[in-house]
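Issue: ligand-bound run for dinuclear copper ion - logging full I/O for the record.

Environment: standard queue, default settings, no custom constraints.

Inputs:
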Amino acid sequence: MDTTGTLIMPPAGSTIASEVDWLFYLILYISIFFFVLVVGAATYFFIKYRRRGEIAPTSQVDHNIKLEIVWTVIPLAIVIILFFLGFSLYMRMNIAPKDALEVKVTAQRWLWTFDYPTGINSVNELVVPAGKPIKLLMSSNDVIHSFFVPDFRVKMDVLPNRYTSVWFNAPYPGQHNIQCSEYCGKGHSEMLGIVKVVSDREYTEWLESAAGPGEGIDLESYGEQLFTSKRCVTCHTVDGSLNVGPSFLHLFGENVYLQGGSQVRADENYLRESILAPEAKVVDGFEPVMPTYQGLLKPRDIDALIAYIKSLGQEQGEQQ
Ligand code: CUA
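Outputs:
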């Protein structure tokens, strides 16, 4: 298996990737062959039959049965062969083996959530055991997204109100990029994730650690980790600069101006509500685009994020 990639292809990270590449190259080389043949013949005829002095009498030949059969039957045979090769690969890429491990994928602006059979979930990081078929059952909470892992040659639209699915088998441990391939708004280009292919043992360990994360570290540091791992960082900054959402710098304890003209103090309850029901209070000047984190965060996670935001609010006070 090709694990480094070529000039035009990323590394082949799944069992099906080399078959996709093979078919791609077959079509590419057939196309190049006919391109050279047609352009070459045309050029040759341009030169051979170019106008020289007097206009030559036009040939009276208007058709040739043998030639017409040749240029009909050969391309027809080629496209029929390509159709069956493509169709059979398409079916194999779309029908997951029965024993596949099923992971639920939820897309929303602008993050990916993965729900595992054991009940835990992760954001923007899909961890799977190597050498096992993985089936992704996908849906969207808002607009159309598209789940694309170039290294796996796997891409499928993710739609609201219906399920789509893909499957893959990544034989070797490693990391592969996930990207959204359907324009879905401001944060589309940052709707990135990673597939971590790990050994069976590491997968089991990861499931256990993901079930009870953040143990043994203080809330503030844990909140800082969550800020990145739960992708708050896609829309919020911690340095005061503007993004899709308000910055968290000096937010805690401040008065926040809301749409409609009211004000609210950014205390613990306001932050908690904004994480779980973001559309309840929308800050003036921003769009109500934040997804709810209901079900994605445990109570301790919410505590940690609030502790982290608090620490960003207090810095000013400490410096003064
Ligand atoms: Cu999601 Cu583009």
